[in-house]
Amino acid sequence: MRIIACALMFSAAIAATAQQKPIILHDAALVDGTGAPVRPHVDITLHKGYIDSVKPAFKEAPKDAEIVDCTGKTVIPGLISAHSHLGILLDNATPSPNAYTTENVTKALDQFERYGVTTIVSLGVNRDLVYQLRDQQRNSKLGGATILTAGRGIGVPNGAPGLNVASDQIYRPGTPDEARKDVDDLAKNHADLVKIWLDSGHGKIPPMKPEIYTAVIEQAHKHHMKVAAHVYTLADAKSLVSADVDIFAHSIRDQAVDPGFAQTLIDHKIWYIPTLTLDEAFYLYAQNPDVMHSAFFQQAAGAELLAKLQAPGYAEKTLASAQTEQAKKDHEIAMKNLKTLYDAGVNIGFGTDSGAVPGRIPGFSEHRELEDLVAAGLTPLQAITLATGENGRLLHEVNSKMSIGLIKNGYSADLIILSADPLMDVRNTRKIVAVYHHGVLVPNTPPQN
């Protein structure tokens, strides 16, 4: 037995023995993901990749365990993003149809994990390579954030998603029969869920026809797969409720929602993932360049994206654009609708659309989303609970083998050790001392400043 200070936990020896020898995170303040108040002076035992016990701090250290002194530290569950993307951008900066490679995808997964995002849903726009990478993870042959995936996803011919990706990253059925075949293909590959895009991009592109998305949803449910929908307007959302959709993958942003709509979501057990950072990312770095000054941000963004965001004229051009004006309006409505739906008791998930376009940055955007949730009116505890326990509940519905999001006996040992209290200031989730994923210490966590 020996005691190791949290600040010195980056030892490869600890990571190598994490699965064989119990690790006790000793005397931590625990935020367990359930929404319960913080529990002081707690010992959390990790063994063979799982939480073995959670109990009051010992007075006499047990033998044959690695003891990690967490006095003065807070432990929270690993964050979960139920809406992210892989293999769309090169170096977080440049959309490319050549971006979906093993090297690029695994680099993003590693970045998510280092920033404490231990599980992601790659919600569409994937090459079939994603199934191989997911299987490698499940056979303990690949690291990084745990992948769940919607495979390619189902879009619209000449419509959404309007991304610069390869043709084999998205299905675009023209008929209901083609849509059903695409769902069958997803099921054959054991996709975790199905993603659809149907909106018209403010009337600039053709929307998905109702007979197409109805066929997708019906066929997915025959395969016992849930369907997540890219949504923007309240009218589309109401139509999707009638078609029995399972998840809204974005906020409704064209108008305010009302209590009646909230009750409809509750009655149909539909999940709502607000992705508040989605619209904000279009203008955040131009409007508030101080965001870019921290090493925590800079390491996540990378040199190429930083160069774009700090280029002469970038801020002026961005703030003067019509897209920015619309994005600000959309962000404001999204914030208000999130609070309305949360207060009504709708199932709220957590995601960011990170990895889809430059500025939505794997790892960083998830911490920014927590900040936005608090700005929308949630408490830090409520925001963290959405990103952990509630998202774990959502993903358990998607895949019943997933037990993540809580620091509780039998759950995957996915945790973040923080040097400051996130319930006092949610930005303290960025003060990462260590990340454990499946009970293994993650190397190279980001700088805290």
3D structure, described in words:
The protein is α/β, with parallel strands linked by helices and 449 residues long. It folds into 2 domains: 3-77 and 405-441, Urease, subunit C, domain 1 (Roll), CATH 2.30.40; 79-398, Metal-dependent hydrolases (TIM Barrel), CATH 3.20.20.140. Helices cover 35% and strands 18% of the residues. It has helices at 12-17, 102-114, 129-138, 176-188, 210-222, 234-242, 259-268, 277-280, 284-287, 295-301, 303-309, 314-320, 322-344, 364-375, 380-398; strands at residues 3-5, 23-30, 39-47, 50-56, 66-69, 74-77, 79-84, 89-90, 94-95, 117-122, 146-149, 194-197, 227-230, 247-248, 271-272, 347-348, 415-418, 432-437, 440-441. Strands 1, 2, 3, 4, 5, 6, 17, 18 and 19 form a 9-stranded mixed beta sheet that branches. The protein has a 5-stranded parallel beta sheet with strand order 12-13-14-15-16, with helices on both faces. Strands 7-10-11 form a 3-stranded parallel beta sheet. Mean pLDDT is 95; it is low at 1-19.
- Tell me the β content: 15-25%
Global mean pLDDT: 95
Anisotropy-based shape: globular
How many individual domains? Answer: 2
Q: How many E strands? A: 19
Q: Which residues sit in consecutive blocks of at least 5 with pLDDT less than 50?
A: 1-19
Please give the CATH architecture of the largest domain.
Answer: Alpha-Beta Barrel
Contiguous helical run count: 15
Structural class of the secondary structure composition?
alpha/beta
Radius of gyration: 21 Å
CATH domain topology of the largest domain: TIM Barrel
- Let me know the largest β-sheet: 9 strands, mixed
C-alpha termini separation? 32 Å
CATH superfamily of the largest domain: Metal-dependent hydrolases
Helix content: 25-40%
- CATH class category name of the largest domain: Alpha Beta
